[in-house]
Design a protein that fits this description.
Length: 808
């Protein structure tokens, strides 16, 4: 009745208002029609207002945060390693509310906006209260802004004027329209200012407290909750007293509203303001640069161990004074089980311009030196070419224009495969690659995850095994994982989401044997089951590229694979810098750090049992076959690791003289003299002979002349005149020999001759020099520079000659 009376009595006023509103006559027949029409038009006005707001939202869209290229590179546990700031130099660490301590959220919402989850973005009561307090105090006492309004101002900064406030209210309405409360809170957690170039609670927590925001105490949470109100004035590292006073104010309010127990607040009030040393993330810069791509997420997660990374960077900085000028170094530590990279140091110091610190030597292409040899020996075992004690030849050889030599410039003669690998002898490795095939080796290395880069149009050659191709530290470490992963190599994993990609490199048995050789356990005991199920020791290999440009050391430890490179990034030589002296000590030091860490954490190394197809065999040199120790052809007995029970025979280089093989059939009479096959009492015997190229390194009793029985003059062998070809050993045709350092007077050579028969006469430039009927070697002294011709004549009339130069 009251409404009806109001409408009837007020009908003229309503009619006049409607005329002004709609511009036409408004004459309802009844008051009900008038009210309905008014409501319809009010609804139409509301819809028009909503449409205008929608249009305004499209014309002036909410400036939500865009990708400003600010990035944070994280360790596996979330510790910031490196940061890439935005265009304004600001760095932030995005987090969700679940990754922040509940204490911080309670302190923030209680102090800043208790009704955050209830109001529509603006709290009228808070605004009225702030207005009254400011007017009563004649100054700004309270702002009355909600968290939503603060986020609106962060997204669209404005002046503190009435138009600016209206603009802030408009942006707040847009925020509440488009985003949920948790999304609005998330923007605040990421964008709130905390002083200097810090934005977001996570960045502030790591910078000021040195810890994750999830680990904040109550006192620390209260401090960071109040800091955005005056980030410059309350910076705790510059104004600790002001910051502590503001923190205590927050704590008292939390107690006042019974959010935290009084006792907990009292304890927090007693807590001093302790700050970690202010540090911006500065670890693994080269890895961070490598992973920071245009479409990378704001949080770039890695597999690195932050503590170990810092330890490795400090370690390599300590080595800087020991390195020659312009020399850098790199360290890569990989956990063998999952191939996760735990430490990545690409240079000594990224800020060291003289050492080219900006160049990442973990991924740089360099000559691998001798680091490829373990792969060749393992593959040769799988191919049935050798066992661990196969007889190889460390003697001078020439392959066309290629004349390899050993690092020590000397030669060992007869050497076991295990010793040749552990001592990193070059000539045996070249002999093995010649038998295996360079192209085959290069192809299988690529399939195994270690591609070898060659110059354009070049084909794999014998120089490949001595560093004649390019490789990367990360690829070599991935390849060496085969010795810890049962013969399967794998790519390194830099990020947690990287898949584990492995592939066969060699058989598990070959990988197990090579690992034992590299760890100094190359010869098995007589008891085939003794000490075979022990925990693995450090297996390691060094390498030096041509011209001392690259020094390498790669170690396979109980749980980790360590790769070290030292050299000059610009590729210039470093005289005297080689793997054993330069890179190996650093690799050993890194290994010791890893072993000590595992020991302190009570982490046991995994057990690596002997594969089923690995066995032990007693073999004899020179044939390399199993035979009784009492057999006359067993000249030296050795115990070898074998695969599948096979004992391959001794390899013979293809260019060695015909007729000088490892075994010769002879007819012997009852006197033990060599006779023709049709002589009375002749018996056929097999005599094992050493490879002819090894004669200068053999005792006289093991040489061919001593091993073959003397001829019976009464019934000599029919092939007496067919002596083996005569060959000069000690100097090669076309050699350029240099006078010894510090001597300009004479050069003394040590020469011998293989093959032939009987007495030998030596000539230099046609002049007779010596008769070696009763001695093993001819040692001429050359006292002039120039070209020489050396020749030798044996008793059967064979001759051999070489020409060489003596230079200053």
């Amino acid at each position: 009745m009251l409404i009806r009376g109001f409408v009837v009595r007020g009908l003229p006023e309503v009619r006049r208002f409607a005329r002004r509103l709609w511009g036409r006559r408004f004459e309802p027949k009844t008051w009900r029609q008038g009210l309905a029409l008014l409501l319809r038009r009010a609804l139409l006005g509301l819809l028009l207002l909503i449409a205008l707001l929608w249009l305004a939202d499209r014309i002036w869209p909410l400036p939500l945060p865009k990708d400003d290229l600010a990035r944070v590179v994280l360790a596996e546990d979330g510790t910031p390693l490196w940061r890439f700031a935005d265009a304004n130099g600001v760095w932030r660490y995005p987090v969700s509310r679940d990754q922040v301590s509940p204490y911080y959220l309670e302190a923030l919402l209680t102090y800043e906006d208790r009704w955050f989850y209830s109001h529509p973005g603006v709290n009228p009561l808070a605004l009225l209260r702030a207005t009254w307090q400011n007017m009563h105090g004649a100054r700004v006492v309270s702002g009355g802004s909600t968290l939503s309004m603060q986020v609106a101002r962060l997204l669209d900064p404005h002046a503190r004027t009435l138009p600016g406030k209206l603009r802030q209210l408009w942006r707040t309405m847009q925020l509440e329209w488009h985003l949920s409360k948790d999304e609005i809170l998330g923007i605040y957690l990421d964008r709130a200012p905390f002083g200097g170039t810090l934005q977001g609670v996570a960045a502030a927590s790591w910078a000021y407290l040195g810890k994750s925001p999830a680990q904040m105490t109550r006192a620390e949470a209260a401090l960071l909750a109040v800091l955005p109100q005056a980030p410059s004035r309350l910076r705790p590292d510059r104004h600790p007293k002001l910051a502590q006073a503001a923190r205590d104010k927050v704590l008292k309010r939390l107690a006042e509203f019974n959010v935290w127990p009084q006792q907990a607040v009292d304890d927090a009030l007693e807590e001093p303001l302790l700050l970690a040393p202010r540090q911006e993330p500065s670890l693994a810069p080269l890895l961070a640069r490598r992973l920071n791509r245009p479409r990378s997420p704001t949080l770039i997660r890695t597999t690195l161990d932050a503590v170990l990374q810092r330890r490795m960077e400090d370690l390599i900085l300590g080595w800087r004074a020991r390195l020659p000028e312009r020399t850098s170094a790199a360290i890569l530590v990989v956990e063998a089980e999952n191939m996760a990279v735990r430490a990545y140091v690409g240079s000594v110091d990224i800020n060291d311009v003289k050492r080219f610190g900006h160049v990442d030597m973990v991924s740089a292409l360099r000559s691998p030196g001798s680091t490829l040899k373990p792969f060749l020996y393992g593959k040769a075992m799988d191919a049935g070419l050798i066992h661990s004690e196969s007889l190889l030849q460390d003697v001078p050889r020439r392959f066309g224009d290629y004349r390899p030599g050993n690092f020590s410039a000397g030669f060992s003669g007869p050497v076991a495969a295990s010793a040749a690998l552990s001592q990193s002898l070059n000539l045996p490795a070249v002999q093995l690659l010649e038998a295996y095939g360079p192209k085959r080796f290069a192809g299988e290395m690529r399939n195994g995850g270690v591609p070898l880069t060659l110059p354009p149009l070049a084909q794999p050659s014998l120089a490949l095994i001595l560093g004649g191709g390019g490789s990367r530290l990360e690829d070599l470490v991935g390849g060496y994982s085969a010795f810890a992963r049962g013969g399967r190599s794998a790519d390194i994993r830099l990020q947690p989401d990287d898949p584990l990609r492995d592939r066969p490199m060699m058989s598990p048995g070959a990988a197990w044997i090579i690992r034992r050789i590299l760890s100094g356990q190359s010869r098995p005991d007589l008891d085939t089951h003794a000490d075979l199920v022990q925990r693995p020791q450090l297996a390691w290999k060094t390498g030096t590229s041509y011209g001392f440009r690259d020094a390498w050391a790669i170690g396979v430890g109980p749980r980790f694979i360590v790769g070290v490179w030292i050299g000059r990034p610009d590729g210039t030589p470093v005289p005297g810098q080689f793997g054993l002296a330069s890179a190996a000590p650093l690799m050993m030091q890194v290994h010791d750090v890893l072993v000590n860490r595992d020991s302190q954490r009570n982490i046991l190394a995994p057990i690596q049992p002997m594969p089923m197809n690995v066995g032990v065999a007693a073999i004899c040199w020179p044939l390399g076959q199993t035979m009784s120790k009492t057999d006359p052809n067993c000249r030296r007995q050795r115990f070898a690791w074998t695969l599948d029970g096979t004992t391959p025979p001794t390899l013979m280089p293809p260019e060695q003289p015909l007729g000088l093989g490892l075994e010769e059939k002879v007819w012997i009479n009852e006197k033990g003299l060599r006779v023709a096959s049709d002589c009375p009492g002749a018996q056929l015997r097999d005599v094992a002979l050493w490879p002819s190229a090894l004669e200068p390194w053999l005792p006289r009793s093991e040489r061919r002349d001593a091993r073959l029985p003397a001829n019976d003059p009464d019934c000599p062998p029919q092939a007496l005149g067919l002596a083996a070809p005569l060959v000069i050993v000690g100097v090669r045709d076309g050699d350029n020999l240099r006078l010894p350092v510090g001597s300009r007077q004479a050069l003394r050579l040590k020469l011998s001759a293989l093959g032939g028969s009987g007495r030998r006469w030596w000539f230099i430039d046609g002049s007779p020099m010596a008769d070696t009927a009763n001695q093993d070697f001819f040692s001429p002294t050359l006292n002039r520079l120039g070209r020489y011709q050396l020749s030798v004549l044996d008793e059967s009339g064979q001759t051999a000659w070489v020409e060489f130069n003596v230079i200053d």
